[in-house]
TrEMBL record:
Gene3D superfamilies: 3.30.420.100. One of its GO terms (molecular function) is structural constituent of ribosome. HAMAP family: Ribosomal_uL18_B. SUPFAM superfamilies: Translational machinery components. GO terms for cellular component: cytoplasm; ribonucleoprotein complex; ribosome. One of its GO terms (biological process) is translation. Keywords: Ribonucleoprotein, Ribosomal protein, RNA-binding, rRNA-binding. It comes from Eucalyptus grandis. Residues 51-61 have a biased composition (Basic and acidic residues). This is Large ribosomal subunit protein uL18c.
Length: 173
C-alpha cells in the first residue's frame, strides 16, 4: 500500500480571525499525473495592423549600419567617414582598430567658412573644398589610401562632389 503525504500551511489572516488552514495539499503517489490539467481560456488574436512609418533618418541609419558591417578602417587604410547635416558637412579619417581620428575637416572650420559664403547650408562647391582640404591633410600625415564611408547617404550631390575632389587631390579609394 502506498503512503500519502499531506502538507498544510498555517497563516494568520486578519479577515479570518484566528490562525486557520488556508492551503492544504495532499500528495498521493497513486494518483500522481492522473488529474487532467485545466487550460486557461484562449483569447482570440486581434489583427490590428499598424503601419509604422520610418523616417528618412531611420532609413539612413539602417543603411549606415549595413555599410559599417563591411567598411572598416585599418592603420594602412583608414575609413573616410562623411556626415552631412542641413547646415554643415563633416569629414573624418578614422582608424577603427585604435578608435582614433587621424584627420578631420568640417564646414565649421575657418579654412572653409571664411573662403565661401553660404547661408542656407553647404553647396557642392563647399563640398569640393572640404574634399580638397581633407585630401591635403591626409597626404601630409602619410595617408594615401582610404576606405570611403558615405554614411548611408546616396552617392550623389555633396557626397559625390566631396569624394571626387578628394580623389583629384591624391587620395585613393
Amino acid at each position: 500500500m502506498a503512503a500519502s503525504t499531506s502538507i498544510s500551511f498555517l497563516s494568520q489572516n486578519p479577515f479570518l480571525g484566528s490562525s486557520q488552514n488556508v492551503l492544504s495539499v495532499s500528495i498521493c503517489p497513486k494518483f500522481v499525473g492522473t488529474v487532467p490539467m485545466q487550460r486557461p481560456p484562449q483569447r482570440q488574436p486581434s489583427f490590428a495592423v499598424e503601419a509604422r512609418a520610418k523616417t528618412r533618418r531611420e532609413d539612413r541609419l539602417a543603411r549606415h549600419s549595413r555599410i559599417r558591417k563591411k567598411v572598416e578602417g585599418t592603420p594602412e587604410r583608414p575609413r573616410l567617414c562623411v556626415f552631412r547635416s542641413n547646415k554643415h558637412l563633416y569629414v573624418q579619417v578614422i582608424d577603427d582598430t585604435k578608435m582614433h581620428t587621424l584627420a578631420a575637416v568640417s564646414t565649421m572650420q575657418k579654412l572653409v567658412s571664411e573662403e565661401s559664403d553660404y547661408s542656407s547650408g553647404p553647396t557642392i562647391e563647399v563640398a569640393k573644398r572640404v574634399g580638397e582640404i581633407i585630401a591635403k591633410s591626409c597626404l601630409e600625415k602619410g595617408i594615401t589610401k582610404v576606405a570611403f564611408d558615405r554614411g548611408g547617404y546616396p552617392y550623389h550631390g555633396r557626397v559625390e562632389a566631396l569624394a571626387e575632389a578628394a580623389r583629384e587631390h591624391g587620395l585613393q579609394f
